[in-house]
Amino acid sequence: SVSRKLVEAAEKGDVKEVKALLQHPLVDPSFVLRNADDWETRTALNEAAKNGHVEAVRALLEDGRADPAWN
Fold first, then answer.
1. Strands 33-34 and 41-42
2. CA spacing 20 to 30 A to 52: which of 18, 28, 60, 66?
3. Would you say the C-alpha torsion 38, 57, 31, 23 has a positive or negative sign?
4. d(C-alpha 46, C-alpha 25), whole Å
5. Quick one: which of 14, 19, 40, 41 has its CA closest to 30?
6. Three-state SS for 14?
7. Handedness of CA 26, 71, 64, 52 (dihedral sign)
């Protein structure tokens, strides 16, 4: 899904891709990706912050739709 791609782009710190995906009409910036093996939850904002990708964090926060409560 496009929201899963957003999590993956944020995890890598690909700001250009993060910004492009945020423009997609079906993207959900607060999408929660769950790992069935250990119940770990991941969001784009969480992954960007965890990996020190400040510009990706900034893009997600400036967009205004990412829910920091999940992070």
1. antiparallel
2. 28
3. negative
4. 22
5. 41
6. coil
7. negative
- Write out the two tokens for 52: 């020190």
Q: Is-contact 10 60, C-beta < 8 A?
A: yes
9: left (phi over 0), alpha (psi -120 to 50) or beta: alpha
Residues in CB range of 64: below 8 A, 6 or more apart: none
Q: Dig out the tokens for 47 from the structure.
A: 């992954």
Q: Which amino acid is at 7?
A: V
- At 58, the pLDDT band (50, 70, 90 cuts) reads very high
- Please check the confidence at residue 71 and state whether its pLDDT lies above 60: no
Reported residue count of the chain is: 71
**pTM recorded for the entire structure:** 0.88
